[in-house]
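Subject: design request, 403 residues
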């Protein structure tokens, strides 16, 4: 007998019909003799709607109360799914994050899972119950509800699979797997049969929302094989697993991230120690800096540019303005209308010319590159936001052909 963890995203449980569709998938899995733990997200756009509602009442609401609100979304879908499964005549119980043993750090809104103590889940499985657990939530040391950050239900599912040594962890969503680009934006995108943890981690971190990056990190750490598949079409999806067992793909996918802003400090004196001063101040303010570019010194000054998530832009500008005053740089400029477009592939380590091919496709599409950053398995460019979708399509056509 196997233990199977099945996670269903918001679209998969969006309405009554979809809930019964999920109940059917779950009970069929159970009927085959498996133990089943189900993790659910909030229905449809519930989480966004809750955030809007909160903003109407108090845009400065405390993060604690926000978590109290947001965690309710998953409670609704868990109970409704349990009712549907009851109706089909199967034994079932739904559990909140804390009942399922999720202890988290105390950072409301982006808590990290510290421990999962699945005693209650085990007890319910021993009673032959199908167990439904609310994703995206846990409890902190103050006994308060916490949430794991947007898209966090994927991580809840992988955490349960890891701690319970599940035989399979299936992430059901609204597309048939992981594609070479977002299939909603690039209709010619192809479904991948298999992708390595490292490539998936890069794609997720660089903006492919299909899996939360922390869930991939955890799956890699505990060697949990994932299957990403559609709850609607019931065809095999994409397997995410360790790379050694498969051939390296030159490029596995293209991702776009709009949550980025570019900041430049112009006219920084060209002497040692100044980059250190800026970036240590940014680090002290907990600003996540991503791509960094420094120009070659000319006329004893240089420019330093970097990117940050949009939510951290104001803090970063503040740090840079005081740096300019103290160190005699010229001024700070910033641009929020930028996107980061990246290609990811383990094969590029051993194939020269991948960057050139990517840049050629951007040149052909008349798209200007503002910044570039590379690692062994990815190349990212920063470009104008208006060009981003065009860039993804152009790069996709270049690497994967037009049909
Ligand atoms: P869920 O609610 O099931 O967690 P998400 O909306 O978080 O679903 O993630 C699924 C979405 O991710 C898809 O609808 C798709 O538009 C988007 N997506 C972005 N990049 C990719 C990709 N490379 N492959 C598949 N889907 C992608
Ligand atoms: N409901 C949460 C969100 O919308 C968690 C999730 O869907 O994974 O971000
Ligand atoms: Mg998601």
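Subject: RE: design request

Done. Sequence follows.
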């Amino acid at each position: 007998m196997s233990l199977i963890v099945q996670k269903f995203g918001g679209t998969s449980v969006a309405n009554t019909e979809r809930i019964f569709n999920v109940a059917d998938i779950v009970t069929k899995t159970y009927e085959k003799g498996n133990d089943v733990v189900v993790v659910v997200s909030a229905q449809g756009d519930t989480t966004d709607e809750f955030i809007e509602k909160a903003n109407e009442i108090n845009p400065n609401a405390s993060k604690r109360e926000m978590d109290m609100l947001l965690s309710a979304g998953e409670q609704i879908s868990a109970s409704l799914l349990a009712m549907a499964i009851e109706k089909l005549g199967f034994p079932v119980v739904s559990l909140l994050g804390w009942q399922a043993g999720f202890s988290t750090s105390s950072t409301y809104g982006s808590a990290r899972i510290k421990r999962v103590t699945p005693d209650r889940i085990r007890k319910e499985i021993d009673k032959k119950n199908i167990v439904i657990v609310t994703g995206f939530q846990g409890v902190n040391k103050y006994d308060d509800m916490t949430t794991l950050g947007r898209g966090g239900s994927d991580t809840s599912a992988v955490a349960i699979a890891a701690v319970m040594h599940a035989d399979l962890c299936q992430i059901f969503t609204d597309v048939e797997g992981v594609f070479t680009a977002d299939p909603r934006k690039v209709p010619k995108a192809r479904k991948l049969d298999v992708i390595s943890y490292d490539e998936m981690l890069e794609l997720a971190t660089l903006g492919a929302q299909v899996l939360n990056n922390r869930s991939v990190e955890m799956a890699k750490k505990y060697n949990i094989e994932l299957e990403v598949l559609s709850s609607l079409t019931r065809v095999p999806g994409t397997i995410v697993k360790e790379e050694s067992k498969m051939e390296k793909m030159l490029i596995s996918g293209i991702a776009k991230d709009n949550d980025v802003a570019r900041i430049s400090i112009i006219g920084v004196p060209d002497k040692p120690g100044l980059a250190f001063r800026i970036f240590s101040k940014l680090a002290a303010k907990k600003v996540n800096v991503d791509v960094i570019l420094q120009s070659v010194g000319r006329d004893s000054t240089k420019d330093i540019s970097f990117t940050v998530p949009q939510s951290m832009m104001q803090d970063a500008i503040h740090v840079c303005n005081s740096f300019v005053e103290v160190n005699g740089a010229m001024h700070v400029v910033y641009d929020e209308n930028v996107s980061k477009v990246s290609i990811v592939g383990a094969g590029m380590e051993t194939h020269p010319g991948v960057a050139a091919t990517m840049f050629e496709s951007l040149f052909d599409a008349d798209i200007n590159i503002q910044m570039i950053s590379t690692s062994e398995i990815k190349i990212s460019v920063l470009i104008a936001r208006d060009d981003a979708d065009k860039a993804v399509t152009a790069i996709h056509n270049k690497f994967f052909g037009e049909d």
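The pocket of aspartic acid (ligand 2) is lined by residues 9-10, 41-42, 47, 73, 135-136, 150-153 (CB under 6 Å).
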